[in-house]
Specification:
Structural class: alpha+beta
Low-confidence stretches: 1-28, 209-223, 459-468
Order of helices and strands: HHHHHHHHHHHHEHEEEEEEEEHEEEEEEE
Number of helices: 14
Shape: elongated
Strand content: 35-45%
Oligomer: single chain
Largest sheet: 14 strands, antiparallel, barrel
CATH class of the largest domain: Mainly Beta
Strand order of the largest sheet: 1-2-3-4-5-6-7-8-9-10-11-14-15-16
Number of strands: 16
CATH topology of the largest domain: Porin
Helix content: 25-40%
Radius of gyration: 30 Å
CATH architecture of the largest domain: Beta Barrel
């Protein structure tokens, strides 16, 4: 995490100042460069980087062979967020004085900040041999190897860095993440738990606490085998529909599947999960979720949902795989509405430490239980997809994007059913980032194109009457999502969401817009 990196640099450079200012005496340098260098130390120690840089830069210009002026200009460059410039100054200083205290450590850190990990490793290994720099170099060596994807080699360095009390929280945290990536979930939970208990008020302690409470239980075998949650909130929907997803029912002839009216509603959700199997090769986890919406005006659209899901997955690794089965049952206005079964096998391939690609296949069978949806909307859907995940600097910042092809095949062969046979293409992109240690944000965009295979039959009175040559329907849907989550405590969070949908069609009857704004409170254990 970026703020952790900054704290580590401050710790390392604090060690530099503590020794270099007192022990290092310029062996070279003109009287003017030495005077400017000495003046620059005052704003440097006060965190006035721009002023310090100007003085150190003047000292270097006065005498380009003043190694300490070059070294401290490099430190100031690094503090100003210019690691590439800092690298040049450190290298020049080391050429003039190869034994300059702490310069190898700071050059390694600068290479690390510039994402030049091979060079960082070389210099940090050299610094690790120096007693004064050993622990700071160990921490950054561990981070460098972690970024390079060599978790097994990183962990001993993190363990070495724990000997320094100032570095111990970060070392424990990243050791836990490295163990987790190796699939050693119990050891990872111990490291993260120790960081959370020993440093509860530190930034890294709070992050570790949240990670062990929320993220770790989602990994097979991590934490307790069970989890439960409850949620209550309110939503405003500008265009209430009869199902959980308007794409399931949009354009349903002869029925008010899409109300084209706005309404507020209360929403309630509860659920939980239990790890049925946790073995060395993988795990099996079952979950149940209940949801209920209660509208203020359009009570005929009150929807109740029940979902049971079982997923078997391998342990995390270079190649991981699994299969999930889901059963959904919905009641509309407290009467049986429809049910569906989904099966999804998937395979994920890790690409180094910061990326992964997933391919999946989903088959869905859907059975409507009420007229006029039954039987013309009963059918199967086959979907194939690929998704790419990229970590943006750390595991909490993730960019993902993907493509999916699906085909809907109605069971009914009558004129009403055949018009819902389509082939669809979908692309989407999303990003998830921590805004602060308590606030997380997600944003996503989805574009979906559906090409229907048979002419569309518009309703005429209460019966379906095909026109002599009906048009084939083509829908283009745009969806925008923004979600925020703020942790009040470890177990209590505020949630806020916005979902916007714009569906265009070559047949005006099927065009619509929909916007949902929601706010809720969720408790998890």
């Amino acid at each position: 995490m970026r703020w952790n990196d900054g704290r580590k640099r401050l710790i390392a450079w604090a060690l530099v100042l503590g020794v270099a200012v007192l022990a290092a005496v310029p062996a070279t340098g003109s009287v003017r460069s030495q005077a400017l260098y000495a003046r620059g130390l005052i704003p440097f120690n006060n965190g006035q980087w721009d002023q310090a840089y100007r003085l150190f830069d003047q000292a270097v210009r006065a005498d380009p062979k003043d190694a300490l002026a070059l070294y401290y200009r490099g430190l100031t460059q690094a503090r100003r967020g210019a690691p590439t410039n800092a690298i040049k100054d450190f290298e020049d200083a080391l050429q003039l004085r190869p034994t300059l205290p702490h310069a190898a450590l700071d050059l390694g850190i600068a290479y690390f900040d510039a994402a030049q990990y091979a060079a960082a490793k070389t210099w940090l290994e050299r610094a690790h041999q120096q007693p004064a720099d050993r622990f700071a170099a160990a921490l950054f060596l561990g981070l460098t190897l972690y970024r390079m994807g060599d978790d097994a080699a990183a962990i001993p360095y993190f363990n070495d860095a724990k000997a320094d009390p100032e570095l111990r929280p970060e070392a424990q945290y990243y050791a836990g993440l490295a163990l987790l990536r190796q699939g050693k979930t119990e050891a990872a939970r111990t490291e993260l738990g120790d960081a959370a208990r020993e440093y509860p008020q530190s930034e890294v302690g709070r992050v570790a606490q949240r990670y062990t409470a929320a993220a770790a239980p989602m990994v097979a075998g991590a934490g307790k085998p069970w989890s439960v949650y409850g949620r209550v909130g309110f939503e405003y929907d500008s265009n209430v529909v009869a199902g959980p997803d308007e794409s399931d029912l949009k354009g349903q002839p002869g029925a008010n599947a899409i109300s084209r009216e706005g309404d507020g509603r209360a929403v309630v959700g509860v659920g939980g999960g239990y790890t049925l199997v946790d073995a060395d090769v993988g795990s099996v986890r079952a979950t149940y979720d209940f949801s209920q919406s209660i509208h203020f005006k359009l009570t005929d659209f009150d929807l109740q949902g029940h979902r049971v899901r079982v997923e078997a997955s391998s342990k995390p690794g270079v190649i991981s795989y699994g299969i999930a089965g889901t059963y959904d049952f919905y009641l509309l206005d407290y009467q049986s509405f429809y049910q569906e079964i989904l099966g999804t096998p998937w395979v994920t391939a890790a690409e180094g430490k910061d990326a992964a690609t997933q391919v999946y296949y989903t088959i869905r069978g859907r059975d409507f239980l009420r007229s006029p949806y039954n039987p013309i909307r009963d059918g199967t859907n086959n979907a194939f997809g690929i998704r790419q995940y990229i970590a943006l600097g750390d595991a909490a910042r993730v960019l993902d994007f993907g493509y999916q092809f699906d085909a809907e095949d109605p069971i009914s062969d009558g004129p009403g059913g055949r018009q819902f046979k389509y082939k669809g293409h979908q692309i989407d992109v999303g990003v998830s980032v921590p805004v602060t240690d308590r606030l997380r944000a997600q944003a996503a965009y989805l574009f979906r194109l559906e090409n229907y295979q048979f002419p569309n039959f518009l309703p005429n009175s209460s019966t379906f009457t095909p026109p002599p040559q009906g048009p084939r329907r083509h829908d283009a849907e745009h969806q925008f999502v923004v979600a925020m989550e703020y942790d009040l405590t470890t177990n209590l969070a505020l949630l806020g969401d916005f979902v916007g949908t714009i569906n265009g069609s070559n047949i005006p009857n099927f065009e619509y817009d929909r916007y949902i704004v929601s706010a809720s409170v969720q408790v998890t254990f």
